Amino acid sequence: VRMNETVATAAMVMKRENISSVVVKDVCRTEGNTVVGVFSERDVTRALVEHGANTPNVTVATLLKRAVISCELADSIATVLRLMNAHQVRHLPVMVEHNLVGVISATDLMRHYLHEEEVHTHAEQADSGLTAGLAALR
Length: 138
Hints:
The protein is of the alpha+beta class. It folds into two domains: 1-68, Roll (CBS-domain), CATH 3.10.580.10; 70-138, CBS-domain, CATH 3.10.580. It has five helices and five strands; from the N terminus they run H-E-E-H-H-E-H-E-E-H. The chain has helices at 7-17, 41-51, 60-63, 77-87, 106-137; strands at 21-26, 34-40, 71-72, 91-96, 99-105. The strands form two sheets. It has a three-stranded mixed β-sheet. A two-stranded antiparallel sheet has the order 1-2. Strand 1 (21-26) and strand 2 (34-40) form a beta hairpin. The radius of gyration is 21 Å and the shape is elongated.
């Protein structure tokens, strides 16, 4: 979303796309669509507390309080987790040479970990099954 969009617009985009955050861009800068932050469900909650009934009309830019924290596509999962932990964020824009290529969330990392665990468990089960099968043949 653009930084001059309202909280209501950002929330509608998140609901429509079934996502928990949107990348905020400054389309007024001469260099194009510059990423200036990430607006998340947590920000909607904070806006409700700070602005009450006027929340739908508040701009996303009003709620961006820090410089954008991002990661590079080549970063390791450990690096991304360290960034999220250090800055207490759940979503990071993923960049390649200052261009946005995606967003990674803590949920994405959890799903990756669980998938890897599942693959590892299946491999162990297959290995033990093969070992038992070979022992039975002896």
